[in-house]
Amino acid sequence: MSAAENLAKKTSVSSACSALGIPRSNYYRHQETKNRPVRNRKIKSPLALTDDEREDVLSILNSDRFVDKSPGETYATLLDEGEYICSTRTMYRVLSAETELKERRHRR
After folding, report:
1. What is the pLDDT of residue 74?
2. Cα 45 from Cα 40, distance rounded (Å)
3. How many domains is the chain built from?
């Protein structure tokens, strides 16, 4: 693309691309990606659980009271008591991240 850029400075982009056999769309796409800033890190959601909250969820799910219950049952029980920790899906995510989630169906 540098040849097309150098030639485009002396002539038009259209004539430079046709002389080199490069589609103009590729030339402009290359210009866009070259000028686009690189995103280095993944932005964490402001709604995500903090590390302390994740530890609290794990300690609740691993407590003697809820160790044999699914996250759905744990969620419902805690809601009946007027306590909201996080959603059931978040409970499953936390368990999965700690590799404490496994297939419970009977395999043949």
Report:
1. 95
2. 16
3. 2
